[in-house]
Amino acid sequence: MEIGTPPEAFDRIVRQYYGKILSYCGYFLRGNRQAAEDCTQDIFIILYNRLGTLNNYEKIGGWLYKTAANLVRQYAAALRKEQKRIKRLSDFSEEGDSPRPLPESLRWEDILDRLGDEEREEKIRAGAEFILGRLKKEEREIWRIVFREKRPIRDVALELKLSPSAAKSRVARLRHKIRALVYRFFET
């Protein structure tokens, strides 16, 4: 097929193939209309920029579909990456970012129940001093925010200028450290 002069040829090709390429992109981008429109627009921008080199190109439709296939793969990969990022961020939703309580296997309550009131108070105070005395400054800050003030992990991230992922990891490590310190304290 003779392509013709660039402006006329481009208009003719767009009229003939735009809807088909848009449908193709939409199908492979799982119905994401915005991504399909963006991908189709990019394909026709590439066509416009390359039209001079495609003069007398016999199967312009084949070229468009091949270009569409390449761009659709790139767009699909970008969409998957964005979905993963959104999923990671949703892990820090309001309901899901509060710390879980220590497991039932820590039956220190049983130990405290066997003590009198004064002994219990003394054991709790001594345990708190034992545990908090073994935490670093940043760990004590995390403890204050999450365990004492019962605020969400995202507050740890904001106050300590950490990413949500780093804050979540540090809270998890602190939880494990506190659990180990509790076991060690009650072993004595």
Could you explain the architecture of this structure?
This protein is an all-alpha fold. It folds into two domains: 6-90, RNA polymerase sigma factor, region 2, helix turn helix motif (Rna Polymerase Sigma Factor, Chain: A, Orthogonal Bundle), CATH 1.10.1740.10; 108-187, Butyryl-CoA Dehydrogenase, subunit A, domain 3 (Up-down Bundle). The chain contains eight helices and no strands. Mean pLDDT is 78; it is low at 92-99 and 102-106.
Relevant terms:
rod-shaped; Rna Polymerase Sigma Factor, Chain: A; mainly alpha; 188 residues; 2 domains; Butyryl-CoA Dehydrogenase, subunit A, domain 3; 8 helices
Please write out the topology.
Elements (H helix, E strand, L loop, with lengths): L5 H23 L4 H18 L9 H31 L17 H6 L3 H17 L3 H12 L4 H8 L3 H24 L1
Largest sheet: none
Number of helices: 8
Distance between the termini: 89 Å
Q: How many structural domains can be distinguished in the coordinates?
A: 2
**Morphology call:** rod-shaped
Q: What string, H for helix and E for strand, traces the elements in order?
A: HHHHHHHH
Q: Ranges with pLDDT <50 over ≥5 residues?
A: 92-99, 102-106
- Write the CATH homologous superfamily of the largest domain: RNA polymerase sigma factor, region 2, helix turn helix motif
| Share of helical residues | over 70%
Give me the CATH fold name of the largest domain.
Answer: Rna Polymerase Sigma Factor, Chain: A
Please tell me the CATH architecture of the largest domain by its name.
Answer: Orthogonal Bundle
Topology, number of strands: 0
Q: Assign the CATH class of the largest domain.
A: Mainly Alpha
Structural class label: mainly alpha
Radius of gyration: 31 Å
Percentage of residues in strands: under 5%
